Amino acid sequence: MPREKQKMLAGELYDPGDRQLCEERSRAQRFMRLYNQTIVDDRSIRKTLLDAHFGRVGERCVLRAPIYLDYGYNIFLGDQVFMNYGCVLLDVCPITIGSDTQIGPGVQFYAADHPRGAKDRSSGLELGRPITIGRNVWIGGHAIILPGITIGDDAVVGAGSVVTKDVPPGATVAGNPARRVGGDRLQSTA
């Protein structure tokens, strides 16, 4: 594996202008054009496209187009994941989403990050940190999940929230930055 890709996957500073990484992002662009133009009702074609491009796609997943991503191969979905329209997955590091998780429209997952220091940032180097979403999580529309975040099983993230810290299992968070609200979500919401 080429060195810049190794560094990217390890969460180290890497050069996003590396030839192989540029080619892989171009491949992802072609995938997005095809997937985002595929007829909604043709699940078999969509599943075939996702299986060919993502790291893992569980059974009965639904990802409504359009979706946006950097690479695709760093996205790992459990069974019965639902992702509504317009989600963004900047997958320079793994983004893992557990089974039975529901994701609202326009949710953004930012595994991609940039150095905080101006000198390092001006070098053009980037880095990333993995995002892990547990089982049976509900993420409301237009939430933003920042690099390195883990959201525990059965958690709820309110619409429009910016998740800057890990979310414990069963917790409900909302706001910018997202903070714990109400009681744990272990009872039915029906």
Structure characterization notes:
The chain has 190 residues and is an alpha/beta fold. The chain has a single domain (3-172), classed as Hexapeptide repeat proteins (UDP N-Acetylglucosamine Acyltransferase, domain 1). The chain has 4 helices and 19 strands. The chain has helices at residues 3-9, 19-36, 43-53, 118-122; strands spanning 56-57, 62-63, 67-69, 75-77, 82-83, 87-90, 95-97, 102-103, 108-110, 112-113, 127-128, 131-133, 138-139, 144-145, 150-151, 156-157, 162-163, 172-174, 179-180. Strand 18 (172-174) and strand 19 (179-180) form a beta hairpin. It is globular, with a radius of gyration of 17 Å. The N and C termini lie far apart (48 Å).
- CATH-defined topology: UDP N-Acetylglucosamine Acyltransferase, domain 1
Give average pLDDT, whole number.
92
**How many beta-strand segments?**
19
- H/E series: HHHEEEEEEEEEEHEEEEEEEEE
For the largest beta-sheet, the strand count, sense and barrel status come to: 7 strands, mixed
Name of the level-1 CATH class: Mainly Beta
> Count of DSSP helices?
4
Please identify, by name, the CATH architecture: 3 Solenoid
Domain tally: 1
**Percent of sequence in beta strands:** 15-25%
Taken from the alpha-carbon principal axes, the silhouette is globular
| N-end to C-end Cα span | 48 Å
